[in-house]
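Reference record:
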Amino acid sequence: MAAAQGAACGRISSSALHATHKPAQSALYLSWDPRHARRLSTGCPRLDACLGGGIDTHGMTEIAGAAGSGKTQLALQCMLQVQLPPSRGGLGGGAVFLHADSPSYMAPMKRLEELADAFAIKHASLGATSERLMSHVYVMQLNSSDALWAVLQDTQWLRTKQARRRGAPTRDGSAIGMDGCRTPSH
């Protein structure tokens, strides 16, 4: 009787089963599936641990804090980290630095050059050079929120530039860093 009750209570129609059932996937398959495993390392193991393995690449991450707390520094670090292969915590891609403050982007670019020099030494075994790292970071000034929205909607231009530089098919690994994005007012 218990078996009959279980069958009656748990009966699922064939069409419902096909609509909701997905074939089982191995853990190995899922670990390689970018929808399940892609996180960008910040380059700081302690921060990565706090973030559950790095920055989630399936959305937007806002870095907030007081002036001088290291927000731009972290964004610049991630622009270099994204260029590492996935086995080293990167995404094997490039980055875009979007800024809204006219002259103020020069200080972050100078800092990015300094970081790229140190990063190239640290990752020389991967063929990293400061020039190569800097050539995979694109800088764009935005004068309005409309311009910001247009850039965020159309990243095909970035994938095209990356492919031309590499001479190879494009990859999905890209990071976009925005600085001073509160400034555009129209």
In short: The CA atoms of residues 62 and 175 lie 13 Å apart. Residues 1-9, 163-171 have pLDDT under 50 and may be disordered. Residues 106-122 form the longest helix (17 residues). The longest strand covers residues 94-99.
